[in-house]
Structures are given as C-alpha cells and as structure tokens.
Write a structure and sequence with these properties.
Length: 334
C-alpha cells in the first residue's frame, strides 16, 4: 500500500477524515506522541491497526474524543471526579479508564469491560476527531516494541507502506505518552505516568495509588492492570542499562565500546561517545527528547548504552518508567 503524506491544513484534514470514515488508518500528531487512528466503532478498521503495528491482541487501545459530551457514548458509571479531572486536564495528556458501553467493540478494549478515554489538546488531532465526527481509537504510531514516535519521520520510518496516510504535523511537545489512570476500582490507580504528573493528580484524587508495574517488573504470571505495562518496550537494539546516581560521568568513562545518554550539565565530564537528552534540572526537556534519543542510539554502533536516569518526580517519573522498560529492567545504582 502507498502511504499518503497529508498536510495539516483543511485539505489534509478532510482527506484524513474521508480515509477514516472509509475504514482506513491514519497517523495523526498529538501533543504527546503520534497516534495511529481508526474509527473506534469499526472492528475491521481496528484490526488494521493491530496488524500494521504488530501489536499483541490483548493490549487495549485508547479512544480519543474532542468533546466531553461524547463521553456518555463510550463510558458508563462515570464518577463525578471525571468532570473535575476533565475541567483541569482536558484537553491534554490524561487518559481515564472507565467501564465501557456496548458501543465499544471488544477488539478496542481487548475483551476487557473497561475502556480508556482521552481528549488530546493538539489542534490537528482535535480537528480530525471533530470533522470526522468519530471517536478515534489510537495507539502510538510505532511498530510494537520500538520507541514511540514524536515526529512524522519516526512514523514513516516504522510504518511507511503499512498504513493509509500520515498527517505531516509538528514534533510532539510533551514527548512521552499520556498519563493513564483507572477510576473503576475502590481507589483511583495510576497505571502509566505521563504528561500530567502524579503530584497534579493528587490535588484532585488525594487517595490515588500507584500501580506496582509503574516502577518495577511484574513477575512472570502476575496479572497486569494495564496490559501494555507487561511488554518489553521502547528498546534500542543496543544493550541498554539505566544508571541511577550522581557519579554517572566517572562510571561511564571506564566503559569501552559504549555510548552515554546524559544530561546537558555533565557533557564536559564525559569522555566516551554521548548523546545529550536534555537538562537534568528540567525533566520536561528529557521527556521531549527521550524517544528520539532511543531511536538514535543504534546508529552509534556501540555494544552498550548507559542512560543517566532522571529524578522520579514530575514528568521525570514518566521518563523513568519508559527507561526501565527500554533497559529491560537492568538498572545500575551507583
Ligand atoms: O499519549 C497517548 O496516550 C498516545 C496518544 C496517541 O494518544 N497513545 C498511546 O496509546 O500511548 P498506546 O496504545 O501506545 O498505550 C495505551 C496504554 C497501554 O499501556 C494500554 O495497555 C493502556 O493504555 N490501556 C488501554 N486501555 C486500557 C484499559 N481498558 N485498561 C487498562 N489499561 C488500558
Ligand atoms: Mg504505545
């Protein structure tokens, strides 16, 4: 199949909407990462997403809406806290897991009785949803297992020839995927940290718990509250280690045939090949660059990569969560 490149202006949006209404799949920019969108009500279109990405069938998709009034069509038993969260964080990088209605086919929710919903803030994404008039199921627009795409070029590198079209939008400014919380149990639970921070969520959900898969590896056979958290993810082909502690430069300088992924502040002290992924003092900059950096690592031709871990607060928690997966949980504490 030939993958069309679409513009972000009116003609591109209209074309994208036609493809989506016809049951096709289109990569669209969002503020977090590019998403691979399909009509959430069309199981045949949804099956194309799983096929193009090579995504395991048991990993459910997020449904994207542009208007809070669409929520009732998708979810049921909606707690009042959803409206307080929506007022503060929607549109934006927050995904909420709720009980689903029968409108949502089982392939979207991977057979679960729940559905994940988010309202993106990127104007192009919003327009595609509202002009098509469809709720759009969209996972990240990468091959399953590889780093999420934060530029249209990343999407093309992974999916050219496998999807109907890609909207050639701007680079994503958050850089990591949305925060996923579940509101279907006794307490709210953080399933995946992201653009909306745990500290911000606590102001509205003081009793929010952090799922154990956020910061550690599930044991084999242990059930994942969020199926996506059990897969190896985001990994470069180069063997990857996450390194925690201040003596990062001294540590990596003893390594041969290795690359360091480091903070701007320590660049002068590192004597081996390196990629700077942002400032250690601004976790937002680390989030913006982390996935592009993970894609760049393999081009350096090293045997191993050592990544300096961010602090686990603010959006740093999301970066840390992605990096322990990229490193297949190989964490070195200095
Ligand atoms: O920022 C984002 O969320 C991006 C953009 C495109 O919106 N999308 C994204 O989708 O990251 P994906 O499919 O790569 O990640 C969705 C995550 C997975 O970890 C999945 O297991 C979880 O959300 N999820 C989806 N539905 C769920 C449900 N009903 N219960 C628990 N977890 C769910
Ligand atoms: Mg993904």
């Amino acid at each position: 199949m030939k993958t069309q490149r679409l513009t972000t202006d009116k003609s591109g949006i209209i074309k994208a909407c036609e493809i989506l209404k016809d049951g096709g799949i289109v990569a669209i920019p969002t503020e977090t990462v590019y998403g691979l969108a399909a009509n959430a009500y069309n199981p045949n279109a949804i099956s194309k997403i799983f096929k193009a990405k090579g995504r395991p069938q048991d990993n459910p998709l997020i449904v994207h809406i542009a208007n809070i009034n669409s929520l009732n069509e998708i979810a049921t038993d909606i707690p009042k806290s959803v409206y307080r969260l929506a007022e503060k964080f929607w549109p934006g990088p927050l995904t909420i897991v709720l009980n689903k209605t029968d409108n949502i086919p089982p392939c979207v929710s991977a057979g679960l009785s729940t559905v994940a919903v988010r309202m993106p803030s990127n104007p192009v994404a919003q327009e595609v949803i509202s002009v098509s008039g469809l709720p759009l199921a969209a996972p990240s627009a990468n091959l399953s297992g590889s780093p999420s795409p934060t530029t249209a070029t990343h999407v093309i590198n992974d999916l050219d020839g496998k999807i109907d079209a890609v909207i050639m939008g701007e680079d994503c400014n958050v850089g990591v995927e949305s925060t996923v919380i579940s509101l279907t149990g006794e307490h709210p639970v953080l399933l995946r940290p992201g653009g909306v921070t745990l500290e911000e969520l606590r102001e509205i959900l003081p009793d929010i718990k952090v799922d154990k898969a956020v910061l550690s590896e599930l044991k084999s056979g242990e059930k994942a509250s969020s199926p996506g958290m059990k897969y190896k993810h985001y990994a470069p082909k180069t063997e990857t280690f996450l390194v925690e502690g201040d003596a990062f430069a001294e540590f990596v300088n003893t390594k041969e045939n290795a690359v360091a992924v480091c903070f701007l502040e320590e660049i002068e002290n590192i004597k081996i090949p390196k990629i700077v992924y942002g400032s250690g003092a601004t976790p937002e900059s680390l989030a913006q660059n982390i996935f592009a950096t993970l894609r760049e690592v393999d081009s350096m031709g090293a045997n191993a990569v050592y990544i300096h871990a961010p602090e686990k607060n603010g959006i740093g928690l999301a970066v840390y969560n992605r990096l322990i997966r990229a490193a297949a949980f190989k964490v070195i504490k200095l």
